[in-house]
Amino acid sequence: MLLSARGLVGGYNAIRIVNGVSLELAAGETLALLGRNGVGKTTLLRTLVGLADRFAGEVLIDDEPIAARDPRRLARLGVAFVPDDRGVFARLTVAENVELARCVAYAPSRVDPFVLFPDLARRRGQPAGTLSGGQQQQLAIGRALATGPRLLVIDELSQGLQPSIVQDLADTLRRVTRETGLALILVEQNPQLAMRICERVVVMQRGEVAAHGSSASLASDASFLDLLIV
C-alpha cells in the first residue's frame, strides 16, 4: 500500500481536530476528502504530510512508518503537497519556482509543467506574486508535479477561482492521473467536481470518517449528500 493512515489523531498545540481517522491509498488511486467546512479535512491532510501535530496513530509509506512532523521525509518518498494558499514563492519568477522544485525532485518528472499549463510557459519570467489566482494554482500544481511525485496531495483545488479555471484544472488533473498512474488525495468543497476527478470518496464529520465508498456508488446516496450540506 502506498499510503496507510491508522487511527490518526491530529491538530495544533493541544487542540485535537482529527479523531481516529484511518484510510489507505494504493499506487495510482485517487481519493477525495469531502465534508462541511470545519470538519477537519485540511487538518487531516496536514497531519498526513507532517505539518500538523499528530497526537496518536501512524502514517506509513510503502509500509514504512513515518515520524510525525517530518514533511521532508515524505517529500523524499515521493509525496508532494499543494496547500490551500498555494504556497508559491511570490518574489521568484515562475521558472525559478519550478526549478527549485526540480532541484529537490523525488524522481524525474513525467510531466512538464510548461507543456501542461501553456499559460505558465508564456509567463516564465514573471514574478509568481503577480499572477492571478488561477495562474498561481497552476504554478502550485505544476511545481508539485515537477518533483516527480508518486502521490499528489491538494488542499482546496477550486477555492477562490473562476468556474472556467476550475473546470480546466479538473480536466487536467483527471488526465494526468490516468495517463501517469499518479495517486491523488484531494480536498474540495464542490463534491460534484471532486467526484469527477477521484474514484473514491471519504466524507468527514466532526473530525471522523462518516462515510466512504466509490464516487459512483455515493453520487446518488441521499444520506451521503446530507453530510455535505453546509
Descriptive notes:
With 230 residues, the protein is an alpha/beta fold. The chain has two domains: 1-78 and 159-230, P-loop containing nucleotide triphosphate hydrolases (Rossmann fold); 81-149, no CATH class. The protein contains ten helices and ten strands. β9 and β10 (208-214) form a beta hairpin.
Please name the defining characteristics of this protein.
230 residues, alpha/beta, Rossmann fold, six-stranded mixed sheet, four-stranded antiparallel sheet, 10 helices, 34% helix, 28% strand, globular
Q: Could you write a compact summary of the structure shown?
A:
The chain is of the alpha/beta class and 230 residues long.
Mean pLDDT: 94
Question: What would CATH call the homologous superfamily of the largest domain?
Answer: P-loop containing nucleotide triphosphate hydrolases
Number of helices: 10
Distance between the termini: 33 Å
Strand arrangement, major sheet? 6-7-8-3-9-10
Helix content: 25-40%
Evaluate the radius of gyration: 17 Å
| CATH A-level architecture of the largest domain | 3-Layer(aba) Sandwich
Number of domains: 2
**Low-pLDDT residue spans:** none
Anisotropy-based shape: globular
> Could you name the CATH topology of the largest domain?
Rossmann fold
Structural class call reads alpha/beta
